[in-house]
Amino acid sequence: LARKSPASIPADRPLLELGLDSLMAVQLRNRLASATGLPLPVKFPFECRTATRMVQSLLRQLGLDAGSPEGGGASRRGALGDHGREVFTKLTEAARSGETALGWELLRGAARARRDAERPARYAPELLRLARGSARPGVVCFPSFVPPTAVQYARFASPLRELRDVWVLDVPGYVPGEPLAPDLATLVQTAAKAVVRSAARGPFAIVGYSSGGFLAHAVTRHLEDLGVIPSALVLLDTPATVSSSAPLLDRLAARLLAEPRHDVELTAMSWYLDLFATWAPAEVAAPILFASPAEVRADDAPRADRASSPRWPFDHALLEVPGDHFSMMDRHAEAVARMVHGWLGERSPARAGRAPCGHPVRQPAGDP
Fold it and tell me: What is the spatial distance between Cα 231 and Cα 351, in angstroms, rounded to a whole number?
């Protein structure tokens, strides 16, 4: 992280905000695994989010009390504490027996049960800053609801450092103790509030990847209703609806099950997808860019006929990017980021010769 000493790292500040990227996370995980002998997951630093949570998790897994290096008695637990993997196990069994649809239904039931059992709590998404730069507009990124969430933009943000401000929305509910949004209206309104609080001091564009595009579009419309107009809405291969993403969910099951995930993450994913089950996008004033991956699998039926099928139900510019739905934000993420950066630059006020867009037209009188 290019810090002069360990003491200069704020223990409770998100590691993503400090500049942690995918390569550094793997290197850190490997060194911690080697030093402790623990079988840590590859995304361990991202799952823990802060240095404090990493230390607490390591102490628990080593059977040590966080307050005393001599203490014992704590059971060995995963990076997310004592929240188990019962739902994950059932989902795995269903997928292996060819009953993926049944597995998703079991997951939906578990998500509803979790939400019903939660006590009322303040729900407050936050924006994490991934990059700083002088180019405008800044970029506010909405991750897919598939875990891990905020880390999805680590590679995307990397080439934009020192070029453009980049934030990512950290959606609560994926870590024990964090509540789920009780309903879609709360999710949209609190996400919009986070955008206004952190990013709306100047022009900004909103970017949504996959299912995160649902929330990105809904927040864009909500902000416009408040008089806060984003410069653009960028959708990174967002399905038209939750139901049209069924082939992706089948492929997603295999990817999720390749590495053990905690039930708290899976139920959060299912809950947020379910909130958008009957949602339909409304027209927005912001120009829309749809980034479509060049590689399409033959079994991706709803998206296979790209020559004749609209990508989004409203007028949009189309940008073909390298990779498929998953690799475009993995090994091709930096290339995709540069292409989006270029498109935003072409639309900038200075280049376009028109009044700036994306500035708050008026600051809302109250909270969104």
Answer: 14
Measured CA distances, 351 to 2, 166, 191 (Å): 35, 21, 30
Task: Yes or no: say if 79 and 40 are a contact pair by the CB < 8 Å rule.
Answer: yes
Q: Is the dihedral of CA 309, 311, 314, 315 positive or negative?
A: negative
pTM, two decimals, is 0.77
DSSP state of 136: E
DSSP lists the bridge partners of residue 236 as 209, 291
CA separation for the pair 86, 263 (Å, rounded): 7
21 vs 144, which has greater pLDDT?
A: 144
In whole angstroms, give the CA distance from residue 178 to residue 197: 21
Of 72, 50, 44, the residue nearest 59 (C-alpha): 72
Sheet containing 233-236: give its strands across.
Answer: 126-131, 164-170, 135-142, 204-209, 233-236, 288-293, 317-321
The whole-angstrom separation of Cα 230 and Cα 253 is 34
* 289, 343 contact by CB (below 8 A): yes
| Pair 164, 133: CB distance under 8 Å | yes
Percentage of residues in the chain with pLDDT exceeding 70? Answer: 77
